[in-house]
Write a structure and sequence with these properties.
CATH architecture of the largest domain: Beta Barrel
Oligomer: single chain
CATH topology of the largest domain: M1 Pyruvate Kinase, Domain 3
Largest sheet: 8 strands, mixed
Low-confidence stretches: none
Strand content: 25-35%
Number of helices: 3
Radius of gyration: 18 Å
Order of helices and strands: EEEEEEEEEEHEEHEEEHEEE
Distance between the termini: 12 Å
Strand order of the largest sheet: 2-1-13-12-16-15-14-18
Helix content: under 10%
Shape: globular
CATH superfamily of the largest domain: PK beta-barrel domain-like
CATH class of the largest domain: Mainly Beta
Length: 265
């Protein structure tokens, strides 16, 4: 039976992730996953697609928040929530929604590193964003993630991709929340519903991949050959988009842990 080998959250969208031994599954995804997001002066989301240097923004958990670090600047202490921040409207993908905007000191810290006018948005509990997919229920919600509450990829699928590449890539290129074992590459494409620990998920739809996968997660440098995306295009196209990994929607909430079996329901 497949098992979970890694659980990761990405507190600030498109910045470095945090690998955890366990996590709590909430309606909009793993607790603390993608609740923060950088936005430009117009409130539009900023990611490694346009700003690959975001791969250099490290986020570490502390007792009551996060320590954010980048090369050449003093570390930033970030609270877990920005409840006292001012309201703003932000855009992520096709969605416009209300959020909180951090204060000037935090925003100046990110602006200095990014070299552009930007701010840090926060999704509080009373902010809502619907999952926009035919597989979703009317009350399904998502954080600042691109489209789904969680992303799952199997180690077997990554191994199959790396066997086709001149230079192997890390699973971190694809920013999954759950990494699992599997008997065969792309077994996860055929899963409909799974149970992991206390939680259950619909394996809702395949994840389409973009230029972000070509950014080295350690250096923030984009691969000149367009890998691994160019190789994925040769065998993982589905009606145009390139698919790698499965998007999940929680159907039963609770705790999950590394080592949990993945039961195919």
């Amino acid at each position: 039976m497949p098992r979970v080998t890694d659980i990761s959250i990405y507190p600030i969208k498109s910045c470095r992730g945090i690998s955890l031994p366990s996590a709590v599954v909430e309606q909009r995804g793993l607790a603390c996953d993608r609740r923060f997001m950088l936005v430009d002066a117009k409130g539009r989301f900023v990611t490694q697609r346009e700003q690959p240097r975001m791969a250099s923004i490290s986020v570490r958990q502390t007792g009551d928040g996060y320590l954010v670090e980048v090369p050449g600047q003093d570390a930033l202490t970030l609270p877990r929530e920005l409840e006292s921040a001012r309201d703003c409207q932000v855009r992520v993908q096709r969605d416009a929604l209300d959020a909180h905007l951090a204060g000037p000191e935090i925003n100046r810290w990110f602006t200095r590193f990014m070299g552009m006018d930007c701010g840090l948005a926060y999704m509080a509990e009373h902010h809502h964003r619907a999952v926009r997919h035919r597989s979703a229920h009317f009350d399904d919600e998502v954080s600042f993630a691109d489209g789904a509450p969680l992303l799952l990829i199997s180690e077997a699928s990554l191994a199959d991709l790396n066997a086709r590449l001149a230079e192997a890539v890390s699973i971190r290129r694809f920013r999954p929340n759950l990494v699992v074992t599997a008997d065969n590459a792309y077994d996860e494409d055929g899963w409909g519903r799974i149970r992991v620990g206390e939680a259950e998920f619909d394996v809702a739809w395949q994840c389409s991949r973009c230029i972000l996968t070509t950014v080295d997660p350690d250096t923030g440098v984009r691969d000149e050959r367009g890998e691994p995306l160019e190789t994925l295009k040769t065998y993982r196209r589905v009606n145009g988009p390139v698919m790698f990994g499965q998007n999940l929607i929680p159907r039963k909430l609770g705790e999950i842990r590394v080592g949990n079996e993945v039961e195919i329901l």
